[in-house]
Design brief:
heterodimer, A: about 625 residues, six-stranded mixed β-sheet, 7 helices, 42 strands, about 45% strand, B: about 65% helix
């Protein structure tokens, strides 16, 4: 890159004629700032605020080739346990998605061809296994090899029998990883012609990702004028918080607060040093700042704290800033390293504002993402290479550094990390990473020019500069454009609010755009279907409850459960209350805990059944 | 997105009274702004001249209300140039012989010309004007993510083109 910079320096020989400045002194010649499109584009831009662009393009996945592992997950749909006889005795090996794990002997009796028999118990020729293979709950198990399954028992690590499928048929049919997520021991007793043996294998049943609704739908709900070139944006603590730099004539940099209930700007908070990033959480709004002084020679960092109750700046944390995130009960930001180019991760107690820990990173970090008990830090890519640093959120220690091609801010979704890498033949790819090992899982997924920013309803959301909001389904292997717009400004900083189901976009003109996102109406379960348990655990609760607005109900509905296909039912308000549609009192707890995107649990399902079952 | 890089705020020129000395700004920043727009416009000197002259004219007219004149000048000049470039059917191919005569590294000129305007602009602003990605995005009226893409594509394309020239 240095060579390029040097070659660019050759252009310094060029310069404008003085005539250019002389013309400037004569005054402007054009009537207005060309900050918008002209002609038909301008008409389209004016219309966009009112328009709703429904889902349009759904296309099959083309990113992987036959023979590749699927980009979205393991290619194995079942676990294989091979029971083999060897010269030394029996063996059991579990294999799943290309990984093998040997069983640990519990006991065995093994006889040779000359009927010399040996027995063992509690001694394992295999190294101890601290943690089982992660396998989706409910994955079927099939047995291979020359051994015959005598008994198959699933136990918890404490030794209790786990159910369901604690004991299966002696031939091993119908065996599966337990459906409840957790750690288990699979016990296998098997027979061979030469003898018998008992083993255990350790597995971790992981939640099965919900398919979520098949389609999402979106609506451009509002465009809120905030001032020129809005940049960083955050949601939380009762507001949408937008960084509006000092571009307006005579104005100071401001943090603009939008009330998501009314979509109105409710307060403008001057921040003289500007903002480089915003985060909302832990009872405050955190504004990271980074300014240069002394002619650009000195970098001054600080992070200010705004009380959302009063909209006042209540404190300033010196020497940290640039980027800020809130997660795992702490505020995370950066400090300059010793050479002013590397960064230090700083963990801050949100209650006191004091620094809890400082972790030098040895590289220039561009973003902070919290997920899965870790802090994920992409470094500034250099000539196609880059690093994603994983830091333990509890200890602040670096766990590993992943070498990836130009990684940018990842999205943590359903226990997996999706890292955007840029770019191959003008296409951004998502690399799926197992956060427990740092291993890249499967082949990268090409996603066009969209950048991931959140997960919602079982989909990963992507926003492209040209204003296309897309949803990628990891389980269906599709990417769907849910809303597009013709508004001309670039779409850069974007955030999703899971509470309201809204996407908020700083669109680099004068506005913030609100896009309401929801599950496309699917079949609404009847009460009878819910009671019958046709909706499995892990279903999206909002989807299960029939996410839709029913304006015909007094006061409107956020969720609606139809009873017996009758066209009437219960109007459910998220977080607050369940309104009985007719004369029936209902249990509030089930819905009171439900947010859009929540997965239904066994307890919730049981309560819902109780609620909907006539006394 | 934030990087500990240089910022255009370091080159602002401003006197203590709050009024801006545009003669000084022209001397200090004008050529750099003009060069950046010239690169962005694909060596269309007329576009660069018009855009920079108009940007300075507006800045002078609104001097009292502009806090940061240099970023303002960059943004306005680029937007005017973008507007002119968008009417590409009315813009003749540039006669860049004079520019080629003035610059030794003609291969670099040719290579840059074959990039898209956004790639050219991003490359020049980031690697020569030393603006951080965020400021490049603001200048080009786009997002930081888009700038990263432009930089990546532009670097790759430049490498290809320059190696072709050397071969």
């Amino acid at each position: 890159m240095t060579e390029w910079k040097e070659r660019l320096r050759a252009l310094d020989d060029l310069g404008p004629d003085d005539e250019v400045y002389r013309r400037a002194q004569e005054g402007p010649r054009r009537s207005e700032l060309p900050d918008g499109p002209s002609g038909p584009k301008r008409l389209a831009a004016a219309a966009v605020a009112l328009a709703v662009f429904a889902a349009a393009a759904v296309f099959g996945w083309q990113a992987f080739r036959p023979g590749d592992r699927e980009p979205f997950g393991p290619s194995d749909t079942s676990v294989t346990i091979t029971l083999a006889s060897t010269e030394d005795g029996p063996s059991a090996t579990l294999s799943y998605d290309g990984v093998e794990q040997s069983g640990v002997f519990e006991e065995y009796v093994w006889c040779t061809a000359t009927d010399e028999c040996s027995a063992g118990s509690g001694e394992s020729p295999y190294p101890p296994i601290d943690e089982g293979l992660a396998i989706p709950a409910g994955t079927p198990i099939r047995f291979e090899g020359d051994g015959r399954v005598e008994r198959f028992v699933v136990r918890t690590p404490e030794g209790d029998r786990a159910s369901p499928n604690a004991v299966v048929d002696t031939d091993g049919t119908d065996a599966s990883v337990p459906e409840e997520p957790g750690d288990y021991l699979l016990w296998i007793a098997a027979d061979w012609d030469q003898g018998s043996g008992a083993f255990y294998l350790r597995v971790r049943a992981t939640p099965t990702p919900s398919d979520g609704p098949e389609h999402l739908q979106a609506q451009v709900a509002d465009q809120i004028e905030v001032g020129p070139f809005p940049q960083a944006i955050a949601v939380g603590e009762g507001g949408v918080w937008v960084d509006v730099p000092a571009n307006a004539p005579g104005a100071a940099p401001e943090i603009v607060r939008i009330d998501p209930e009314s979509d109105r700007v409710v307060v403008r908070i001057p921040v003289p040093e500007g903002a480089s990033d915003i985060a909302a959480g832990e009872g405050s709004v955190w504004v990271a700042q980074a300014t240069r002084t002394d002619g650009g020679r000195r970098l001054v960092l600080q992070t200010i704290r705004i009380d959302p109750a009063t909209n006042q700046i209540v404190s300033t944390i010196p020497d940290v800033g640039g980027t800020v995130a809130v997660g795992d009960g702490f505020v995370w930001t950066l400090a300059a390293g010793s050479d002013d180019t590397t960064t230090v991760l700083v963990k801050i107690d949100p209650g006191t504002g004091s620094v809890v820990s400082r972790q030098p990173l040895g590289a220039t970090v561009t973003d902070i993402v919290i997920g899965g008990g870790s802090v994920w830090l992409p470094t500034l890519p250099d000539q196609g290479s880059g690093t994603l640093i994983q830091v333990d959120a509890a200890t602040s220690q670096i766990l590993r550094s992943l070498q990836l091609t130009s990684p940018y801010a990842p999205v943590f979704a359903d226990g997996e990390l999706w890292v955007p890498t840029c770019c191959d033949d003008n296409v951004v790819s998502l690399v799926r990473v197992d956060p427990s090992t740092g291993d890249t899982v499967a082949v990268p997924v090409e996603v066009g020019d969209g950048w991931p920013f959140a997960d919602a309803y079982g989909h990963i959301l992507l926003m492209s500069e040209r204003g296309a909001l897309s949803a990628l389904s990891p389980t269906r292997h599709t990417i769907e454009t849910v809303v597009t717009s013709d508004w001309p400004a670039a779409h850069g900083t974007v955030v999703f609010d899971p509470v309201t189901g809204s996407v908020w976009v700083s669109n680099f003109r004068r506005t913030v755009t609100r896009i309401d996102l929801m599950a496309a109406p699917g079949p609404i379960p009847t009460a009878a279907e819910i009671v019958a348990g046709d909706w499995p655990l892990g279903s999206d609760l909002a989807q299960m409850l029939g996410l839709r607005r029913e304006e015909s109900f007094e006061g409107g509905c956020s969720y609606f459960v139809e009873v017996n296909d009758s066209g009437t039912g219960y109007c459910l308000e998220p977080l607050e209350e369940l309104i009985p549609a007719r004369d029936r009192e209902v249990d509030l707890i089930v819905i009171g805990e439900a947010l859009r995107g929540d997965r239904i649990t066994a307890e919730q399902l049981e309560r819902l059944r109780e609620t909907l079952t006539p006394a | 997105m934030f990087t500990f890089g240089a910022s255009w705020r370091s080159v602002r020129v401003r006197d203590v009274s709050g009024d801006h000395d545009f003669d000084a700004i022209w001397r200090e920043a004008g050529p750099a702004i003009w060069r950046a727009v010239l690169v962005y416009a694909g060596w269309r000197r007329a576009i660069a001249d018009d855009a920079v002259a108009e940007a300075f004219a507006r800045a002078i007219a609104r001097s009292d209300s502009i806090r940061e004149p240099v970023p303002y000048l960059y943004r306005v000049a680029f937007r005017i140039a973008a507007d002119d470039l968008s009417r590409s059917d009315t813009v003749a191919e540039p006669d860049d012989r004079a520019i080629r005569d003035a610059v030794e590294d003609v291969d670099m000129l040719r290579a840059l010309k074959r990039l898209s305007p956004a790639q050219r602009g991003a490359i020049y602003l980031h690697y020569r004007a030393d603006l951080p990605v965020r400021d490049v995005a603001s200048t080009l009226g786009t997002s930081t993510a888009a700038v990263k893409v432009h930089l990546m594509r532009g670097r790759r394309r430049l490498a290809e083109l320059l190696s072709e020239d050397e071969a």
